[in-house]
Write a structure and sequence with these properties.
CATH architecture of the largest domain: 3-Layer(aba) Sandwich
Bound molecules: calcium ion
Structural class: alpha/beta
Order of helices and strands: EHEHEHEHEHEEEEHEHHEE
């Protein structure tokens, strides 16, 4: 998961990119202008920027220059309708990492995004390979196991997905309805116990005392939260 800022004034193109990147579990922020883009990319830790050149205010080259001048080192991939060599050279000289000419294939762009993220952070880029400690146990979401001093316990698919969502918002309450919608793709029914039943079983695997959980907590009337 990475935070990606898209700076692109064509709303349809930006929307398509956003959907695809969010599908790959990234967080996406989108700006329609260069100045707004600079703001988005500097106000929160950003892992990658997709940058159009022709923007309504300052152009992409200027955005690139300002981001680098602010000391930011995240990969910047330029998206541009201009294909002249001179533009490529200029973009790369100003600190961009890669250059994709419009119209581009979405698949190719996504591959380049993955490659750029991998180069920037080789550790995190084993995509989906997430492990973390919950108390004295280690959760490995890639292998879908909980590793306890006594041995390993397998996690079911739904348990892993719930844990993944809770971990992405660690310390914050995640609404039950969000879990249902994102994992099961359904809305919350009036007496829906689906999520709660999986939480009971997760607590058995992760908590020392499942009746008095210390890590998978109930957020009253909302949902659940993970505390490490
Ligand atoms: Ca444009």
């Amino acid at each position: 998961m990475a935070r990606i800022v898209i700076i692109e004034d064509e709303p349809d193109l930006a929307l398509g990119l956003r959907d695809n990147l969010e599908f790959e579990k990234h967080t996406v922020a989108h700006a329609l202008t260069g100045q707004e883009g600079v703001k988005l990319a500097t106000q929160a830790p950003t892992d990658l920027v997709l940058l159009d050149i022709m923007l309504p205010d300052i152009d992409g080259f200027e955005v690139c220059k300002r981001l680098r001048a602010a000391g930011l080192t995240m990969p910047i991939i330029i998206l541009s309708a201009r294909s002249q060599e001179i533009d490529k050279v200029r973009g790369l000289e100003l600190g961009a990492d890669d250059y994709v000419t419009k119209p581009f294939s979405l698949r190719e762009l996504l591959a380049r995004v993955r490659a750029a993220l991998r180069r920037a952070d080789p550790g995190a880029a084993a995509v989906g390979h997430v492990t973390f400690l919950v108390g004295d146990r280690r959760v490995d979401l890639t292998r879908q196991v909980v590793i306890a001093p006594q041995g390993e316990t397998p996690l079911g698919y739904y348990e892993s997905e719930i844990l993944r969502m809770l971990y992405e918002k660690v310390g914050q309450a995640v609404p039950r309805a969000d879990l249902l919608e994102k994992i099961w793709g359904v809305g919350l029914g009036p007496a829906d116990r689906t999520v709660d039943n999986h939480i009971v079983s997760l607590r058995r695997k992760l908590e020392t005392d499942p009746k008095n959980p210390r890590h998978i907590l109930t957020a009253h009337a909302v949902g659940y939260k993970l505390v490490l």
